[in-house]
Write a structure and sequence with these properties.
The complex is a heterodimer. By secondary structure, chain A is mainly alpha-helical. Chain A is built from nine helices and no strands. Helix content of chain B is 32%, strand content 30%. In chain B, a hairpin with a 2-residue loop joins strand 1 and strand 2. In chain B, helix 4 runs antiparallel to helix 5. The radius of gyration of chain B is 21 Å and the shape is elongated. Classes of the chains: A mainly alpha, B alpha/beta. The interface between A and B is medium-sized, with 26 and 30 residues.
């Protein structure tokens, strides 16, 4: 237990600055959206109904929170640049123990931003007398999963860098690689077409919106996203384990 | 737990890279010894150290640390060894106190009092960020961390390079103190042979991935000498006694092995004692035989 305390202390302390920055951005956005609710902006005739506005706010807060929680915390980069990655090979913690601590820190941030998103959702919905907690959970976990998937791919690539210079080279290759992949995707039929707006100029028609809402409020969606989340956590752990275990050539 | 004869045993280790091969190297470090590991840049010192610490995999051979296999018993070994690199591998945002918190959970025998004593002795600030430390302070911090968990084996890769003579002397003095109970051993790679002459019991000399010399420092120094003679007299000296010859305008300086025998053999010549620096220099040029 003492070992994990040390490992987690190190990782949290290293990622603290980034977390504080994200927290400030998140709070700014959330508080900005709280302003119309506090000022009673829904009561004017001709304005959007409170439920629609609250849904929009919940969606934005959940997406932002999920993005911040799932994104890469910069730990691998910091370890490579400082030389700690090489040094960690001569320290007693095993690759598995270090990977568990990596996953734990990731889950800490997911829980932290999840609680924050949940709190703001509660505040918005209480003001509008409307329950959107299920929607928030689905959007939040969905965003976490999407960003985590990118993080896993990034962590896999970064695994091959042993020092600062290699990290730079791999970073450049990955950047152009990602650009190439997006370009190739753009060549497939249907992938390069811009969305056609609906007749009244809205991005989604009422029918599409209803369908989306039914998906977002469904318990089956929650279960599916949770299952994907668990799989991604396992995948993240395995990648980190391999990364910590991999010796220099 | 301490039942081993050699702190490090390296047998026939080979590691191949593009353009460089660590070629079938073997040497031992008996328990309680300081081994100086010398060689020019690119000779294979760091590769050897990385191989024995399992930072990199070896192609063939066997490495035992503290009597244990360096891969199978890796976790057990790591709790009992300490490593000091030429550059501080700690993050700039931490301070000395943070490092204690990080290491106390990792090492079962971490001694916080000993660590704080080293911090005070080295006059290191406890709350200042490591990023603001000088090179000397960084090295001292790394050494303080390495010496605070009762490690039986200390491995140092160019740890004193780049430090001023006062700091180097202070650090060497601490290593001598650390070894006093005879249960601890040190492997120290360095370019600065004067440091090794001060503290090393044994010396291993590596060049182009091959071990050229290994043994007790005093014996190696006693065995070698520099014979001074005129260039025209060089043909009188047997090739088997010569490591290499340095020529200049005034004559020749010949590095000879088996100094005692050679001094009987060539009574008319002066044979000066050789330093580790001289030995390294003449061995590096052994293929050319004659150089200036």
């Amino acid at each position: 237990m003492k070992l994990y305390r040390s490992l987690i202390y190190r990782e949290l302390k290293l990622t603290r600055k980034r977390c504080i920055l994200m927290l400030i951005l998140f709070l700014l956005l959330s508080l900005l959206m709280l302003t119309p609710i506090m000022l009673g902006g829904f009561s004017e005739p001709g304005e959007e109904s409170p439920a629609e506005m609250v849904l929009l706010f919940v969606g934005m807060v959940s997406l932002t929170g999920g993005f911040m929680a799932g994104t890469n915390n910069g730990l691998q980069k910091a370890d490579i640049n400082s030389g700690w990655k090489r040094y960690s090979f001569v320290l007693p913690p095993t690759a598995k123990q270090q990977a568990i601590s990596d996953l734990f820190v990731k889950l800490c941030y997911i829980l932290f931003f999840g609680l924050l998103s949940g709190t703001f959702t509660l505040i918005y919905t209480i003001a509008a007398d409307f329950n959107a907690f299920g929607i928030m959970l689905n959007i939040y976990l969905g965003a976490v999963c999407a960003v985590m998937l990118i993080d896993i791919a990034y962590s896999y690539i970064v695994m091959f860098a042993n020092d600062k210079n290699q990290f730079k080279v791999i970073g450049v290759i990955a950047f152009f690689g990602a650009g190439f992949v997006l370009r190739v995707f753009g060549l497939f039929p249907g992938m390069n077409k811009t969305e056609k707006p609906t007749e009244d100029g809205a991005l989604l028609s009422e029918e599409q919106l209803n369908r989306l809402m039914s998906v977002l409020t469904s318990h089956q969606t929650t279960l599916c996203i949770l299952a994907v989340f668990v799989v991604l956590c396992v995948l993240f752990f395995l990648i980190m384990w391999r990364s910590r275990e991999r010796r220099e050539p | 737990m301490n039942d081993y004869e050699n702190a490090i045993e390296i047998k026939g280790v080979t590691k191949k890279y593009d353009g460089f091969t660590l070629d079938n190297i073997s040497f031992d470090i008996p328990k309680g010894c300081i081994m100086g590991f010398i060689g020019q840049n690119g000779a294979g010192k760091t590769t050897t150290i990385r191989s024995l610490l399992h930072i990199t995999d070896i192609d063939s051979g066997e490495i035992r640390l503290l009597g244990l296999d360096h891969i199978k018993d890796e976790t057990a070994i790591k709790k009992r060894i300490a490593v000091v690199f030429d550059e501080l591998p700690f993050h700039d945002v931490f301070n000395a106190k943070d490092m204690a918190k990080i290491f106390e959970g990792m090492y079962p025998e971490w001694d916080n009092d000993a660590y704080m004593k080293y911090i005070e002795r080295f006059q290191l600030p406890q709350k200042k960020k490591i990023g603001q430390f000088s090179k000397g302070m960084k090295m001292k911090l790394q050494i303080a961390c390495a010496l605070s968990h009762n490690a039986e084996l200390l491995v140092m890769d160019e740890a004193t390079t780049g430090l001023d003579p006062v700091v180097r002397d202070e650090i060497l003095h601490i290593f001598m103190e650390y070894l006093q109970n005879g249960e601890r051993s040190i492997l120290m790679s360095s370019h600065i042979t004067s440091d090794l002459e001060k503290i090393a019991d044994m010396v291993t000399f590596i060049d182009k991935g091959k071990i050229l010399l290994t043994g007790y420092k005093d014996e190696i120094i006693e065995q070698h000498g520099i014979l001074k003679c005129g260039k025209d007299k060089l043909k009188e000296i047997d090739n088997e006694d010569i490591v290499s010859i340095r020529t200049n305008d005034f004559g020749a300086e010949v590095m000879v092995t088996n100094r005692e025998n050679v001094s009987y053999k060539y009574r008319e010549y002066v044979i000066d004692p050789a330093s580790l620096d001289d030995i390294m220099l003449y061995y590096v040029h052994r293929d050319m035989k004659e150089w200036s």
